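Pinned message: reference record for Laccase
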Amino acid sequence: AAVVEYTWDVENFRVERLCNEHVVTAVNGTIPGPAINVREGDTVIIHVRNKSPYNVTLHWHGIFQLGSQWSDGPEYVTQCPIAPAGTYTYKFTITGQEGTLWWHAHSSFLRANIYGSLIIRPRLGHSYPYPRVYQEVPILLGEWWNGNVEDIGNNATQGLVPQTSDAYTINGFPGDLYNNTCSTQQTYRLKVKQGKRYLLRIINAALNEQHFFKIANHSFTVVAIDAGYTRPYKTDVIVLAPGQTVDAIISTNQRVGSYYMAFTQYKSSAVQNNNSTTRAVLVYEGASQSLAPIMPDLPDQTDTPTAHKFYTNITGLAGGPHWIPVPRTVDENMFVTFGIALTPCDLPGPGACIPLAGSNVLLSASMNNESFVLPKGRGSSMLEAFYRNNASGVYTKDFPSQPPFVFNYTDPSLASGSNLLSFAPKSTKAKTLKFNSTVQVVLQNTAILGTENHPIHIHGFNFYVLAQGFGNYNATVDESKFNFVNPQVRNTISAPVGGWAVIRFRADNPGIWLVHCHLENHLPWGLAMSFEVENGPTPSTRLPAPPVNLPKC
Ligand code: C2O
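Predicted structure (tokens):
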């Protein structure tokens, strides 16, 4: 296995987007940042030099970090941020996963421009469990803001109404927005040869939107999601929530020509209001320049049945590379509600909050009625507190395994007790798990302030998705739907709008692991919790000592 080592500079520089120059904070002067291409078993070492004016950390989304917990990256959770002029070295070995992952900043909204692909190929001498492809192409979907993303993130942290982005991007450029000549010049074009197979490694690095993705006249065979192989799944539309990845094969078996590859938002809720569609072009070699590309017929933006079909029909490649059978016994059962709510205004000054129905409020979010706050200003990260074996003053270990009371979670008109959940207390809580215990979590969406899909991401683990559905989870009926044979394996699940998902994982990774909604607006509102996984019995199953250059708070 190889060691792949880079030095990266996080820095401010000027770029042109949408016909204007802007100052952005990103890595090594590019958006997206550098791609990491490795094989399973390789070790990655990234020396980060923070030359920007902001605190920053980097996170390797989907990497287990077993034995390298100090490299996971969420600020104040596994490390204090790298201050301006500071440095830190991330080092981890990739084992037991292949496919497409990505990396991103885990501080404020900086991931808007600080992200890139992390592609894991099989070890030398091993091959993919699908037909050979002619070329592999990363497709990173992102968002562009004309404003300063650090400021936009700070507004969200206060609970103010989120600001929507100015464009969606494909591989860093605003793509081809309808009627926008500024973006058309920068459109990404993928040149292909007729009669070949291409593997698209699609990453939803957008901050706040799920997306439908289609290519005119071409269909996909999905072969992996979140760096885990799937049974080949044929579809003409792909759906991804922020944080998720999809590896899909296309055959260039159409007439020589150009075809739009288009993303449009899947809106699971009426409150999400970015209507734009962004496009890139798939151009066959020899295609005439003068003909306009063919446009795919995209689903309606509110087409939940199409999104749900994609999200639920994919199955894991049982028996394939790195497949681990589903644990059949459960040591820890949790039922976790999550959703958005309002909270009374606590910002000083007149007009600082959101005026709504005669009172001043802020937006907030919670899991099991606890609104998570990062332990900023408490002297250390959660992981350092865990390592010292003294959480006091940093976090508490009483995250509840059940919501405080049972109500009709998904019908706001019937949810009489649910108003109480509008005032979720702010806290920094962890749920303690025994080393190697198996954990099952029912993720239940709530309708306190409307419902929408929330992409729930767990650091440090992949999990099996046993079942998903709409309405209130009902164990007596829904347990019979569990797929123990070939469930999909993910690190981010888009829990259905007004519905539930049941996930299961083995807590074989000691440390502190953040669980959160990957919609960037919702994390600072508190849609998060954390797991504290106890040390195991052997040296290799214990949290190692922190690296010497770990940043101080
Ligand atoms: Cu991709 Cu906690 O994040």
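Pinned by admin. Summary line: Residues 332-541 form a domain with the Immunoglobulin-like fold (CATH 2.60.40.420).
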